[in-house]
């Protein structure tokens, strides 16, 4: 029986076990069938090929000494007479046969093969890239495919057929890997290029490895078929075909851990510095004004940061962002000796630019690198490593100022230590790989885009302000950093002395680690349905947030700006220290759970790094705009009780909007309710998408 099947448009090869088997097929079965065939196809009258010319012997042992049947015109006519072709399609084909470039249309035998594949697959949504006589969607095929991805149609198609510009095949293929669902099929025409791919003497550039290497089965998937110069790709286990195991694959967990370490050194230390209240100064005015400048520029470059990240890649973007943190810490060192706010405010504005770049890139990596079912886990991993920086950063002022019980401003060594960590983070950021080189744990790539364009990013960023999904996230984004000025300055800064503030920072950021792990587990493992997990996550955060802000209200009623509390010390204040300390710890817990929840929501909207960098950039921009206003609210001495009520109200308003987002924007996985099948005998054909539709993109050449 046949062990392999390859069909060229003009040559048909069937490998047989013995010469006897082949001869019998030709002399009896084939001839008998030919005599009874009533075909509308004309035989090639001028062909003088005998039946013996149909056989070529491949004596090489590596082919198993098999024989090859070549398609003669008579044999091809025999094949065509057995093709089931509807009458209307036959008429259309014959009408198009007289048109210019008619050789591009699909032949009847090819059409029957494609129809059979679609029927076996149960395909409902199909994409055809490159058409001949019809064209439903005009424009460049690659741009059309990208627009489908941007519209949230990833993994929603069952079948794709490509017969278009050959030089673009690799890009078409990579984009289709995102659009075709788990278990779908991609068929690509002309992968053998009329046999030239195996001809070392052919000068045709289309046969060179860089044009087709990524399409060859040994580079994509062990279960591939080449037929009719078409390559069929089928992946039964993952959304996209896997890379071969023999090629080293950069795991997605490593870069997420690495970006966590970068943020441990830079924003982690920044959080520890800010968490002491007033940037470690007795008067928070300079810190408030610097933070206002910081979050103002952050709000602009946070939105732009996703586009900048897509254009320049992670190394340059993250390194540029990280380099601004040490300058900010150094400005407070300068302020210790020269109490002029100018340098501190300028450093804050510069840091806002850098932070916008860093957090947009970080968000893209954290949300796009994990697989669909492990996004919460990766967010927890990053958040734990990042906030460990706040823990270590909190220990720095605690130990360096431990014996300074009456001091109000931290010493120079504290700022120097922060600067050392922040500089190390900038250097470490240069080791991060671009997303196009990172492969997820299931073998899929994080993105297929290496570099974007300024015009593309500008257009896509502007579209975010009309994106209903992003608009639903605005209240959550606005409130997620709005409470920092209140918690840092008016809880930790007002209620505790200097060394205790450092200790509180350790536990505040430690609580963030616990909170992110807890909510990450609930968002990934609590239920099989992703929608249900989203609802559960919102419910947990809403209930916990209500309880914590309620406790904060009870605490706030005990003091005000006009009647500040007596400074508490962890060693000498006894039971009076316990209540406010637990409250501040819970504030850190809630912060991590709230922000991790929002990040998970954003991550559930897409999988591609290019798209998610823009989404996260938008989120960070809105978040920073809220923070900029919050720091000025505190600088203008707004009553503390009013600040608490505003913070509580903003977070509460965001919960029902996130529920709407889960209901209408977040989709359940196809396999969410089914265990993985390990039986190799199963067909593993996954039910097609429910929506009907057929898209034809681009023009064939």
TrEMBL record:
* Polar residues composition-biased segments: 673-685, 692-701
Stated membrane topology is: Multi-pass membrane protein
Q: Name one GO molecular function term.
A: O-methyltransferase activity
Which branch of life, at top level? Answer: Eukaryota
Location in or out of the cell: Membrane
Give the span(s) annotated as Disordered.
671-701
Q: Which CDD domains match?
A: MFS_unc93-like (cd06178)
InterPro entries the record matches: Ion_channel_UNC-93, MFS_trans_sf, SAM-dependent_MTases_sf, SAM_O-MeTrfase, UNC-93-like_regulator
Q: Which residues cross the membrane?
A: 252-273, 293-311, 318-335, 341-360, 381-402, 414-433, 466-486, 506-523, 535-557, 577-603, 645-666
**Which cofactors is this protein said to need?**
a divalent metal cation
| GO biological process assignments | methylation
Q: Which GO terms describe its cellular component?
A: membrane
Q: Which PROSITE patterns does UniProt cross-reference here?
A: SAM_OMT_I (PS51682)
- Asked if the Swiss-Prot or TrEMBL record annotates the protein with the keyword Thylakoid, the reply is no
Q: Which Pfam families match?
A: Methyltransf_3, UNC-93
Q: Which UniProt keywords apply?
A: Membrane, Methyltransferase, S-adenosyl-L-methionine, Transferase, Transmembrane, Transmembrane helix
Q: Which family does it belong to?
A: Belongs to the class I-like SAM-binding methyltransferase superfamily. Cation-dependent O-methyltransferase family.
Q: What name appears for this protein in its UniProt entry? A: Caffeoyl-CoA O-methyltransferase
Q: Which organism is it from?
A: Acer yangbiense
